[in-house]
Design brief:
Rossmann fold, 5-stranded parallel beta sheet, glutamine-fructose-6-phosphate transaminase (isomerizing) activity, alpha/beta, repeat, transferase, 10 strands, 15 helices, carbohydrate derivative binding, 2 domains
């Protein structure tokens, strides 16, 4: 029986094409709204927060604007007013109905920020209605609790945002993403070997750096919520500052990297260190170098680093779905979770 999660993973190329077709023509709207701003503030929770990490690295690395992640409790619990003049506040919510995120975006606007919503909830969602500009993704209804197509289309919307901020990237790279994702779904690499390597363990360290850090966080979240693993998502820089002590023969590492970029060699070196200590290192992406240094590997996309996270997460999604079934868990309906999470 095909799970809803597996079906929705397969829908991602079409969802990405539809989203890019809708949003790329709106780059000038982003540029106009952002003209008088100097920095960005990302507002999100959960999977959307991981997407925001991608947005932060992308904007700082390629658009040259300082970016940060909001603490929504400053708005909703402490009710503290800040000076957000010159700030572009970007709120992400797949449903567009998470009250805390809507409230925080309204607060940001009242504090002087220009506001953008990124949501799959449509133009009529509360988040879209609250924003100066709504970038609505076109992933379609997502029925499985673990987000897949709504996450990758969020990344696509953030890539469009970067274009509107005049990022030093090739806009044509975006059009290559849906085909690259389609190829990864057809050939994700040695999923079975990685599933067997994780089937009996209680925990795993998931690590990447830079633009791939968002993928490491999202992969760890998926393994936690759908496979009930104690999955720790870390930058490999932070991992080396102590937590690497937990990596051993009972706690493997899942290491993520694009096939190019300044963080690749550090990820390869980390894989060699892990396997040299007698533990298992499973690679995602990183080309032949990371695959050779790893115990087993999943494929990555043939994409430039700035758009690679839209492809890198796909093998991790397929791994999560397969591992959940291997562990006797229904990945569509993890215990204790709902599709829309409300926080105060």
């Amino acid at each position: 029986m095909t799970t809803k999660m597996r079906s929705e993973i397969g829908e991602q190329p079409a969802a990405l094409r539809a989203t890019l077709d809708a949003l790329v023509p709106r780059v000038d709207e982003v540029r106009a709204l952002a003209r008088d701003t100097r920095q960005l503030l990302f507002i999100a929770r959960g999977t959307s927060d991981n997407a925001a990490v991608y947005g932060r690295y992308l904007i700082e690395a390629h658009a040259g604007r300082m970016s940060s992640l909001a603490a929504p409790s400053i708005a909703t619990t402490y009710k503290r007013k800040l000076d957000l003049s010159g700030v572009l506040a970007v709120a992400l919510s797949q449903s567009g109905r998470t009250e805390e995120i809507v409230e925080t975006l309204v607060w940001a606007k009242a504090c002087g920020a220009s506001t953008v919503a990124v949501t799959n909830g449509g133009e009529d969602s509360p988040l879209a209605q609250a924003a100066d500009l709504a970038l609505c993704t076109l992933a379609g209804e997502e029925k499985a609790v673990p987000a897949t197509k709504t996450y990758t289309t969020q990344l696509a919307a953030l890539a469009v945002l970067a274009l509107g901020l005049d990022a030093d990237v090739n806009a044509d790279d975006l059009q290559r993403v849906p085909d690259a994702v389609e190829r990864l779904i057809a050939d994700p690499g040695d999923v079975d070997a990685v599933v067997e390597g994780l089937a009996e363990v209680a925990g795993v360290v998931v690590s990447g750096r830079g633009l791939a850090f968002s993928t490491a966080l999202e992969a760890a979240l998926k393994l936690k919520e759908a496979c009930y693993l104690h999955a720790m998502g870390l930058s490999y820089a932070d991992l080396l500052h102590g937590p690497i002590a937990v990596v051993d023969e009972r706690t493997p590492a899942l290491l993520v990297a694009s096939g190019e970029g300044p963080t690749l060699q550090g990820t390869v070196a980390l894989a060699r260190r892990v396997t040299g200590a007698g533990a298992s290192a499973f690679g995602i992406g990183g080309g032949a170098e990371l695959a050779t240094a790893s115990t087993a590997a999943l494929n990555g996309p043939s994409l430039p680093e700035w758009v690679a996270p839209m492809g890198l997460i796909v093998p991790a999604q397929l791994l999560t779905e397969s591992l959940a079934r291997r562990r006797g868990i229904d990945p569509d309906s993890p215990r204790g979770l709902n599709k829309v999470t409300q926080t105060d």
